[in-house]
Amino acid sequence: MELTIWTYEGPPHVGAMRVAASLEDSHLLLHAPQGDTYADLLFTMIARNGKRPPVTYTTFQARDLGADTAAIVLQSAREAAERFKPALMLVAESCTAELLQDQPGTLAAGADLEVPVVHVELAAYSRKENWGASETLYHLVRALLNGREDRSERKPADPARRPRVNLLGPTELGFRCRDDVTEITRLLDAAGVDVNLAAPADASVADLLRIPDADANVCLYPEIAQTTCAWLERKFRQPTVRTVPIGVGATRDFLAEVAEATGIEIDIDKIERNCRLPWYSRSVDSTYLTGKRVFIFADATHALAAARIAREELGFEVVGLGTYSREQARGVREAARQHGLEPLITDDYLEVERRIAELQPELVLGTQMERHIAKKLGIGCAVISSPAHVQDFPARYSPQMGYEGANVIFDSWVHPLMMGLEEHLLGMFREDFEFNDEAMPSHLAAVPGEGYARSGQDDTGTAAEGTPAWAQDAERELKKIPFFVRGKARRNTELFASERGVETISVETLYEAKAHFSR
Amino acid sequence: MNQPAAISDIPIETCVTPEQEHGERAVFCGLTSIIWLHRKIQDAFFLVVGSRTCAHLIQSAAGVMIFAEPRFATAVLQERDLAGLADCHEEIDRVVAQVLERRPQLRNLFLVSSCPSEVIKLDLENAAGRLNRQYGGRVRFFDYSGSGIETTFTQGEDSCLSRLVEHMPADDSNEPRLLIAGTLPDIVEDQFLRLFGDLGIGAVDFLPARSLDDLPPVGKQTRVLLAQPYLGQTARALIGRGASLVEAPYPLGAEGTLEWLRAAARTFAVDDDRFERVTAAPLARAQRAVALQRKRLEGKRIAFLPDSQLELPLARFLQRECGASLLEIGTPYFDRQSLAAELELLPAGIRIVEGQALNRQLDRVRAAQPDLTVCGLGIANPLEAEGLRTKWSIELMFSPIQGFEQAGDLAELFCRPLVRNERLAV
Fold it and tell me: Which domains does chain B have, with CATH numbers?
């Protein structure tokens, strides 16, 4: 057993759900007990999807265990096929169902459904979410394309058309995947390359059947697409573009690799002119960024990209680098060595917290976990990777990849830091009671605590004339109200009391006021 | 102003029989209740023995992470535990030692079983007994089931509290004591304590108590008043220890709170004048606060999907105090004993559906086009995207909604999606 407090990745069947939810016309039959349906909310609440993920859960209960859970699988499969009419049915098990050994894949395959069935075995007790997504994509692509003839050499370039590539890896709940696909499609278009399809994101089963038509595969998220890309390389001799285009330098390298894989010339300098990061980083206000100590912890793809951007493109000093992606840890170890650091490969968030507390960086680049750690320690933070929370699925266009991605990254990493001019002003006003050095940067939406909201009253020690006093029990009651509305409750109650000539606010007054203002 | 009728005025003409539905369910498992239980019982740690799914569920359902190191964790089963390469009981001991090393001040620890631990028949009761002997009382160990195959959402609290009942000290006195069962926010608990004090009911205990060191006594003189509708097993366990159950509706809304208090007052022979005197001001406040919201809810058609087991009391509040009309009320399970007083207050011909067949139920919701659908987090946005207004029900578990002072807030929770809809022009 492994003691786990917070987890960076969900179980592998959540990875299977992410693939199913990305695809346009597939359905996932998940053999799982009722509580596992919580996973819907990842899609509908965190990513704000307007549709339930295309998943049917068998939701067996204890009383079914003695009876016939296999019958529930069959019934669920038939109902799902009938209701949703998917082009393909994926079948998988969650951790509990894996123990039952009902073999839902075999059951569904033998159920005479009018759709092809692809079973994915997910090792729930040894693997995690990204692996589950990777396996699902691989088994799906393999099931659809294994019957095709192997190619013994690369498909010859067709001079009559532009080269085309597949973008593999973008998945629901992945970090900014939606915008990355758009951005990379634009970038490649500017470079004279077409996108054949992106998968699993928004691909239909018919699209997946067209994978072999592309001249190369772009492995956008190695955590999810590396296994599939490797198989396609063996099967169809499709070359894989491996550089992940996050950051200015990486985007250049990416374009160079695409040029090589597709055999065309790309004028990289011309495309790069749209990128503001290089100039913003050189402009004088950015001088204060020099040598800022930054700690990076993310999935391997984003951690590696962040380390390179931090050092080469923003002039930060990387003081810590790590990942929770054990499958992809090798690259992170290598990068850490280049930065002269000890890599942190762990999925124990407390270990990450300890390291951050020890290193005392000025900026943390991480997942939502690190955002919490940073907030607790009072350090600025930008989220750069899944797992992410609802605010990291922004409404605006905000890719991470390509040149616009680099612009977005400049803004979002610099934002949590003090602005250059602001640092000077803070020095000037250091002794001012309202502007002490614990004040948050003015451009941050800091949640003012009660101390902030009441600072005038507390610091002078005397209440303004005519302000009613608080009885001790009323004051205690007030403290039970959540801090973020407490200031308002206090003001309203005092207003209510003084309007009525109440001199001492009792618990009763507090609630009278509450009732008065609640409309 | 709508004056709620006292319970005794309502003829018992309906014997509600819920429809049963079987199929795909969209509900949380009992582990979810750890989110509020660990906040309430501050000197206990909850260790789930389960899988990565369990850990992921709690953190996803909690929505935001809690700032301090949380007082819960999961001992995640590994391949080697299942293959028999590791002895699960030795592993539990090792993980427990790890937790205690990290938190040496810990006095109480719950071992919570999950779907996988129950399927492999891992005996946590046995483990708790062994650990109790091993730690010689320095740390106390309890066990209960939070699994999705045994419990639905709030039932996890029922499962936890019913285990605690076994550990409550015996009360052999002849003095009646009031026991309020079911987690309430501290602020609500304190409001009720003041009201009971004013009524002259001084001997009041809460289950769970804020500290496990203060587990209340139980015996023949214990009068149990349920504060939450999902505690059937706990109620039966308390009755098994001699306590008697005070039948009452739940303290949701002005009427529910009044009748809930009245049931206690009658049990403790509080005279009517005193009851009127004590409750008049807060009742009037609650009614005023609800009245402000009533105009927005009046005539609105409201449906409930099964979720927290609070569906029936909430429906009663919305119908009787806010003037809403009720469509289908889904409930994960139906415990007639716990809901008896609520059923008397609900209108005749009400449609209650126990269990779930998710897609058929959603079809009915789409056909009925309710003005508001109270549902779980996974379903709310999809229904909104189809043009329906929803209230996500987990907020009702995390917000103080019980009692007079919160009656207006409770109504406002249901109004907010409607008001928002009126405001938005996009």
Answer: 7-15+168-274 (3.40.50.1980), 30-151 (3.40.50.1980), 293-424 (3.40.50.1980)
Q: Are B118 and B145 spatial neighbours (Cβ–Cβ below 8 Å)?
A: yes
Partners of A401 in the β-ladder = A246
Work out the average pLDDT over A21-46: 96
Chain A residues with CB under 8 Å of B416 CB are none
**Cα–Cα distance measured from residue A34 to residue B115, given in angstroms and rounded to the nearest whole number:** 10
User: C-alpha angle with apex A328: A325 to A330, nearest 5 degrees?
Assistant: 120
Indicate the SS3 state at residue B84. coil
> Which among B28, B88, B382 is the nearest to A44, CB-wise?
B382
Which of A203, A196, A119, A193 is CA-nearest to residue A163? A193
Percent of chain B having pLDDT more than 70? 95
Q: CA B131, CA B125: separation in Å to the nearest integer?
A: 10
pLDDT for the residue numbered B348: 87
Cβ count near B215 (within 10 Å): 16
Residue range A66-94, pLDDT digits in tens? 778 899 999 999 999 999 999 999 999 99
pLDDT for A438 beyond 60: no
Q: Give the nearest chain B residue to A29 (CA atoms).
A: B24
Pairing state of beta strands B352-355 and B325-331? parallel
Residues of A in contact with B51 (CB under 8 A): 11, 95-96, 124-125
Q: Which of B26, B51, B95 sits opposite A95 (nearest CB)?
A: B51
**pLDDT at position A152:** 92
Distance from CA of A299 to the nearest CA of B (A): 17
| Residues B78, A42: C-beta atoms closer than 8 Å | no
Over the stretch B253-263, which tens digit does the pLDDT of each residue have?
A: 999 999 999 99
How far apart CA B83 and CA B5 sit, in angstroms, is 62
Partner-chain residue, chosen from B51, B73, B289, that has the shortest CB–CB distance to A5: B73
Catalytic residue among A189, A285, A432, A473: A285
CA distance B172 to chain A (A): 34
From B366's Cα to the closest Cα of chain A, the distance in A is: 14
Residues of B whose CB is below 8 A from A3: 73-76, 95, 98-99
Phi, psi of A292 (to 5 degrees): -55, 135
pLDDT higher than threshold 80 for residue A257? yes
Is position A285 annotated as part of the catalytic site? yes
Q: Which residues have CB under 8 Å from B249's CB, separation 6+? A: B7, B255, B256, B259, B260, B313, B316, B341, B342, B345
B416, closest residue in chain A (CA to CA): A519
Per the model's pLDDT, the better-predicted residue between A239 and A425 turns out to be A239
Place of tokens 């004591």: B177
Q: What is the pTM of this model?
A: 0.90
- What ipTM does the predicted assembly reach? 0.93
- Measured from the Cβ of residue B76, the count of other Cβ atoms closer than 10 Å reads 24
- The pLDDT of residue B16 is above 80: no
- Angle in degrees, CA B30, B35, B38, rounded to 5: 110
